[in-house]
Amino acid sequence: MAETIYLKAMTVRDHTDIDMIKKDIKMGMILIVRVGPMAQRDLQGLRKLVDELYAAARTEGADIARLGEERILVTPAIVQIWKPQYDLK
Amino acid sequence: MAETIYLKAMTVRDHTDIDMIKKDIKMGMILIVRVGPMAQRDLQGLRKLVDELYAAARTEGADIARLGEERILVTPAIVQIWKPQYDLK
Fold first, then answer.
1. How far is the C-alpha of B80 from the C-alpha of A2, rounded, in Å?
2. Domains in chain A, ordered, with CATH?
3. Cβ contact (<8 Å) for A30 and B34?
4. What is the pLDDT of residues B32-58, one digit of tens each?
5. Which end of chain A is flanked by fewer CB atoms within 10 Å, N or C?
6. Is A1 within 8 Å of B81 when comparing Cβ atoms?
């Protein structure tokens, strides 16, 4: 059996949260990132954060998908997201 | 490295979905179960389904937590849910 994998759910507040997220991705955590509240406050900043999130996921070989309107899912290489359709409902 | 772990997001429609969910838990999948739509249609049936879901998770040594208002998260023993507070936001 491999070592424990951690799953962390969090809400992003502003662009500075990207550093913690990148660290968590690098550590191989499963992340459920809630972006809804920031979308209402700072859509421009959120777009930048999401671009960096996708880039970081790609660099680490992580899988990534939207989860409904509010959340983004990031998983380390060992965890594969089951995608019956592109966006998860 | 251990074998791949699958993460599956799904929406429950009615009580018959519990069989598929139990099978997925037994297979060691990570599940994100969206219960919101059923809550509006059949709250009684949903309560029964959620009770069975918690019982099945306990039997398999899975971890379980709410994810916002709409979703329930179930993870196999190898995946631990990071819980800064009881309910994840």
1. 13
2. 7-75 (3.30.110.150)
3. no
4. 999 999 999 999 999 999 999 999 999
5. N
6. no
Q: Give the nearest chain A residue to B86 (CA atoms).
A: A9
Whether pLDDT at A2 is above 80: no
Q: How far is B16 from chain A (nearest CA, A)?
A: 19
The tens digit of pLDDT for each residue in A12-62 reads 999 999 999 999 999 999 999 999 999 999 999 999 999 999 999 999 999
Instruction: Assign B57 to helix, strand or coil.
Output: helix
**Residues belonging to chain B:** 89
Of residues B38, B2, B40, B36, the one with CA closest to residue B17: B38
Encoded tokens for A82: 């089951």
Q: In the A/B pair of chains, how many CB contacts fall below 8 A?
A: 77
Q: What does the alpha-carbon distance between residue B34 and residue A70 come to, in Å, rounded to a whole number?
A: 13
Contact A89 B9 (CB under 8 A): yes
Considering only CB atoms, A5 lies closest to which of B6, B32, B79, namely B79
CA distances from A37 to A42, B24, B55 (A): 9, 32, 33
User: Which one-letter DSSP state was computed for residue B4?
Assistant: P
